[in-house]
Amino acid sequence: MSDLTAIGGGAVTMTSLELVDFINGHRRQQAELAGAEFPSTQHPTLLHKNFLAKVPEVLGAETSAKFSADLPDRYGRPRKGYRFPKRESCLMAMSYSYELQAAVFDHMTALEQQLAAVFTVPQTRAEALRLAADLEEQNAQLMLENQQKALRIESLESVFQAGMTPTQFCKRLNGVNTQQVNGALLAIGWIYDAERDPERSAKYRVSSRARDKYLTEGVISIEKEGGSPFVKYTLVLLQKGAARLHELYLQEALPMKADWDGKFTHAKFALGGRQ
């Protein structure tokens, strides 16, 4: 989120996209504190299109039009949105809850303090040179982060294919120990062993918490000579599940091979090495 956006020589703003991300982050925190899942009925995900529909209702059509803005999507294409100063950002947050309004107010107040610190007028030539160097370093870091984010999105799209199993997906991720992937999914509660007999081969099924969110199941009917056919279930990875596994991979939270070279790579994309 690029929060330090200045207007009018010093005010900070938040875009509608940033506000939606902030609200969803707040809802996720509330769900975690309550020991609940996110998203859920009690803690739903706010969609940007639903937020946009609410803006004229809260601010009025004429007022909201003043803050209309074209916001680039991840491919740089313009999309409809808003850029709000502090007052309107807080009003939009208040339309969801007073607690959220307070959180947005505190957040933007902290950003104002950061902005004031960044743009303190230098008093000497040495301070001016130091400020210029700091700003150049911050811009370079922001560009690097944006490039890395774009690489992650593009590389994930190049790896995932509909109908893949989690193991097939992880085979494309450099260094993952694919023999232990199902064990990792078992540990985080995405799957369970329907066989329940340690002496027999595991029969993995998708758990209710992950079903139709991260995983689904494929069903295969296998004919058995001289006997009745039986059903075999396969784990099928969904796109959101692939994104979550990709996050865990970058966090080194998946089982990795002992001889892994420390590089997060697959196909022709490289996401940097382990520090």
TrEMBL record:
<protein>
    <submittedName>
        <fullName>Transporter</fullName>
    </submittedName>
</protein>
<keyword id="KW-0175">Coiled coil</keyword>
<feature type="coiled-coil region">
    <location>
        <begin position="125"/>
        <end position="152"/>
    </location>
</feature>
